[in-house]
């Protein structure tokens, strides 16, 4: 399968999952955007786990990495919704909530990315990659 | 939400994902540089989302269009997971300055684009 097609199919699924989560967990304009936070943290851990583990194995074809990484997980997680929420919270004069939302997203996102990479790499019985050697296609 | 709107959101998200993929291939992670393609899509997508949210607020675009463009296209175009994972990979590789810059530049430009365009058009 061409990688771009795999990304398109993965993008349909990832966007659909995020839309479903938004529908199940709606939030008011001045409320905390839980659905986006959950999608971002779950997706970030999953991508770290895959990038640190299974994807270091040569048997995984590039189109599968592209479809799941760039497509499914990439479109399930989103930065624009975070930034859009910050703009709306600013209008609602909920600046403290906006700062809290950004802070929690960032700190937990980086921690989960690190944990995912470490756990994935432990499972694959390989040392952590010390240099980024791929061409970006796996991310 | 009608089935047509939901389907449009999904397709818009998938198109955004393909654009992000192609840009991340064209401008990949490489030593001495920030992850350029991901930075560009995240900033452009955040700015577009801010603008559309602002337009929707004064009813210049409908809620359905907002959903397709913001939740669909911008949501698929931008990504949070790759941003975080690439930052940790930069730090693990000893490139702390690039990792910190990747966080700060994305945050500053993303917030600037989203908030700036939102305030400009609403």
Count of extended strands of chain A:
0
The helicity of chain A comes to 55-70%
Class from secondary-structure proportions of chain A: mainly alpha
Tally of alpha and pi helices of chain B: 5
Low-confidence stretches of chain B: none
SSE string of chain B, helix = H, strand = E?
HHHHH
SSE succession of chain A: HHHHH
What is the terminal separation of chain B in angstroms? 24 Å
What's the number of structural domains of chain B? 1
Largest sheet of chain A: none
Task: Using the CA coordinates, give the radius of gyration of chain A.
Answer: 16 Å
Looking at the chains present, what oligomeric state does this protein adopt? heterodimer
- Identify the overall geometry of chain A: globular
Distance between the termini of chain A: 18 Å
How many structural domains of chain A? 1
Report the structural category of chain B. mainly alpha
Tell me about this structure.
The complex is a heterodimer of chains A (139) and B (122). The two termini of chain A are 18 Å apart. Chain A has one domain (3-123). With 139 residues, chain A is mainly alpha-helical. Chain A has helices at 3-24, 34-52, 62-76, 80-91, 95-123. The mean pLDDT of chain A is 90. Helices cover 70% and strands 0% of the residues of chain A. The relative contact order of chain B is 0.18. The mean pLDDT of chain B is 93.
